[in-house]
Every structure is written in C-alpha cells, then in structure tokens.
Amino acid sequence: MNVVVVGSLNMDVFIPVDTYPGSGETVKGGNAKYLPGGKGANQALAAARQGANVTMVGMVGADANGEALRASLEADGVNCSLVQTFDGPTGIAFVHLEKDGSNRIILSSGANDAFLPDRAEAYKDLVAHADAVLFQLEIPIETVGMLVRVAMEAGVPTYLDPAPARSDVFTHIPKVDWITPNEHEAQLLTGIKVVDATSARLACAKLQQLGAKRVLLKVGSQGTYVADENGLFYQPGIAVPVVDTTAAGDAFTAAFVVEYLRGESVYGAARMACAAGALAVTRLGAQPSLPYRDEVVGFLETVDAALSSKTETTPRE
Ligand code: RIB
Predict the structure, then answer these.
(1) Using CA positions, which residue lies closest to atom 10 of ligand 1?
(2) Could you give the percent of the chain with pLDDT greater than 70?
(3) For residue 311, is pLDDT > 80?
(4) What is the spatial distance between Cα 252 and Cα 258, in angstroms, rounded to a whole number?
(5) Most ligand 1 atoms within 8 A of CB, residue of 90, 105, 137, 180 to mutate
(6) If we measure between CA atoms, which residue out of 101, 78, 75, 108 comes closest to residue 2?
(7) What is the rounded CA–CA span in Å between residue 161 and residue 317?
(8) CB contact at 8 A, 40 and 138
(9) Is the torsion defined by CA of 205, 210, 216, 217 positive or negative?
(10) Residue 138 has pLDDT above 90, yes or no
(11) Helix, strand, coil % (nearest 5) of the chain?
(12) pLDDT at 266
C-alpha cells in the first residue's frame, strides 16, 4: 500500500520543566534532548513502522537538522527522495515536557513555511496515484488545500489532522475524506466542547456538515469516537503509564490509516490506533516513541489476555 504524507519535518528540542517562566523570569529545566519530529514526518515514520510503503513530501533546511530528519525517516524505509531542501533553517519545535508527560510546544517553522503551493505543483501526480494521503497543518494551508483537491478529484482517500489548531480550515480545505481532530481542535472548528458522548456526537455531526465525510475524534487517554456513514462508534483508550504524550496522535492516525487500508473495519482500525497511541505515550520523544506493528499487535494480545484472565477469576454470584 502506497501512503503519501504531505507535511512538516521538525527537529524537536525537549526540555523537561517543573514550572514555566513568567515574564522576565528564568527557570532551570533538565538536560535538553534533540529528537526528530514534526507532525508530517512523525506520521510518515509511524505509517512505515505499521508496514506501509511511504513517501514523504515536504521541506527541510540546508543544515544538519535537515540531514538528521531525512536519516531518521530513511532508517525505516520512508522514501525522502522528494523532500526538498530550502536555503534556510529546518523547522524546530521547542517541547517543554512536564512531569505528567504533557507538553507545551513552540514551533519555529523554518523550511516548513517555505513549502508554498508553487513548490508543491510537482507532487500532483504522486498524490493522485497514492492509496491514501495524510495532511496536517504545519505547512502553509494553501499547499494542503491544493493537494487535498488533487487527491479528492482523483478519488484518493485524504486524511487531515487539523493541527496546529486554526478556525478557518474549511475555508481553505472545503472537503476531506477523514478529519482527525483532538477535543481542542474539534472545539475550535465547531464551537462544541467535547465532554461526553452526546457532545462528541454533535461535534462529529458538525464536522461532517462543514465538509469532512468521516471523523476520527481523538479524546486522549479516553480513546476515540469514529463517525462515518454507519453512525458513531466509541473505542475506549487503554490505560498506560505516561512518559511523554508527544506524537501519540501521530502514531494513532498512522496506525488507523494503515489498518484501514489493509482492509480492517473502522472498529479494528480504531482499536489498533488506540493501542499505537498508548504505546507511544510510554516513551520519550516523537519519532523514537512510534511503535512497530508487531509491538502494537503484541500489546493488544497482552491487553486481551489480561482482560480475559480478569473475567475468568471473577467469582460467580
Ligand atoms: O505531533 C507532534 C509534533 O508536533 C512534534 O514532533 C513537534 O515537532 C510538533 O510539531
């Protein structure tokens, strides 16, 4: 299966922090770690680790970070021969990592912002012949809009991760096959705060009215809601010890896409996606945390075994 990912490549600089500085204040954090990331590159690598044949489309700078990002993807077989080099810096994400594994990210887009529609013209044919194309919003939205249209016209399934969040997504991208927001992005797009199944249903319906055929609404450790032509379905999350939530959503989306392309039902694909996301949060970093398919399958077997042993040992009334 041929998956094309159109998006960002960033070098992530992780700094563990206890507290955030206020204005004019300096706080000491832990040792910084430079780890490959970027929503596009993460999804490309995650899809390759799930067994897809992946081509990355995007831009890096002419610097050591750009080289390191290509190398990280190529190590797992992602085709980076079409990644362009920009005469400027590679994107950098400053990830402030809190003790509970949550993060705050400041993005310096660098080369990602230079990936304007004129540079993306060359990829129309590639996109039109893929089995699926994944997009996010860390490159110019005009470029995303242009290539989504090409894919939709060619009948190629499109997946849009509307992150970083912005409210004007459907102005630029009127139609998409799947949208994969988290609660925060869903609220920005629909005005509906997702707190339970009822609000999730309303938010998904609104997203479908706005232009998404189907919705994968990620609710963090709680799991996901899937809205398609058969209605709404909830897949619960899997509880794990949290180290770092960075790129869990990328692992989730890529696992869903690849399983679905393999012919799995939305239910089976959503279950694999939740397991991939759960595994990713148990590890530090974006790309180092992305699980391989065997790991996800093995993890689900462990979860099932634990559940069935609990059922077996439950005393009968
Ligand atoms: O989705 C996670 C990614 O978001 C990080 O790798 C970082 O680069 C930010 O863009």
Answers:
(1) 38
(2) 97
(3) no
(4) 10
(5) 105
(6) 78
(7) 47
(8) yes
(9) negative
(10) yes
(11) 45, 25, 35
(12) 96
Q: Between vectors from CA 35 to CA 30 and to CA 39, what angle results, nearest 5°?
A: 120
Report which ligand 1 atom has the smallest distance to the Cα of 91. Answer: 8
Helices and strands in the chain, H and E counts: 11, 14
Residue 315 confidence (pLDDT) above 60: no
- Residue length, the chain? 317
Residue type for position 189: L
Pick from 41, 272, 312: nearest CA to 161? 41
pTM: 0.95
Write out pLDDT tens, residues 279-291. 999 999 999 999 9
Contact 163, 181 (CB under 8 A): yes
Domain locations along the chain: 2-20+31-307
Q: Which residues line ligand 1 (CB under 6 A)?
A: 10, 12, 37-39, 42, 93, 105, 107, 138, 246-247, 249-250, 286
CA dihedral 291, 238, 226, 184 (to 10 degrees): -90
What is the dihedral sign for C-alpha 164, 262, 79, 75? positive
Which spans in 140-238 are helix H? 141-153, 169-172, 183-190, 197-210
Tell me how far CA of residue 6 lies from CA of 114, 123, 240, 315, in angstroms. Answer: 13, 9, 30, 53
Three-class DSSP category at 142: helix
Mean pLDDT of the chain: 95
Q: What is the mean pLDDT of residues 222-229?
A: 96
State the CATH architecture for 2-20+31-307.
3-Layer(aba) Sandwich (3.40)
Annotation marks residue 196 as catalytic: no
Per-residue pLDDT reduced to its tens digit, 144-197: 999 999 999 999 999 999 999 999 999 999 999 999 999 999 999 999 999 999
Place of tokens 């970083």: 164
What would the mean pLDDT of 109-123 be, rounded to a whole number? 97
Dist. CA 302–CA 231, nearest whole Å? 30
